[in-house]
Specification:
This protein has 108 residues and is mainly alpha-helical. The chain is built from six helices and no strands. The protein has helices spanning 2-12, 15-36, 41-46, 50-63, 77-82, 94-107.
Length: 108
């Protein structure tokens, strides 16, 4: 990669090839992140998916070389908070956006 960058910088001066390479590498990185990286245990717990969160924590512990496991009946603070969080309602619905646009066009 560095060699290719130096080639573009000093010999070719054609930046389009470098831009294409960066674009392809970023698309590959995005695909890897989306399909390989698991969801965080905190996200899973807040969304009432405790069994998946426990499995994710077990996987993290195994990768880190920890030799202990989380009890299946363990309750995390995120699980407790999930019941107290207000339900999320979409703030910008299509009808609200259309009414705001209509108000803008009428007043101006």
């Amino acid at each position: 990669m560095v060699v290719f960058g130096f080639y573009i910088l000093f010999i070719s001066r054609d930046w389009a090839g470098l831009m294409l390479l960066m674009y392809v590498l970023s698309i590959i990185a995005f695909a890897v992140i989306c399909f390989v990286l698991p969801e965080s245990p905190k996200f899973l717990l807040i969304n009432n998916r405790a069994s998946e969160a426990h499995e994710s924590l077990r996987t993290i512990a195994r990768i880190n070389g920890a030799n202990y496991s989380i009890p299946p009946d363990a309750v995390f603070i995120e699980q407790d908070l999930a019941g107290h969080l207000p339900a999320r309602k979409p703030d910008l619905t299509l009808a609200r956006i259309n009414s705001q646009i209509a108000n803008l066009t009428m007043t101006h």
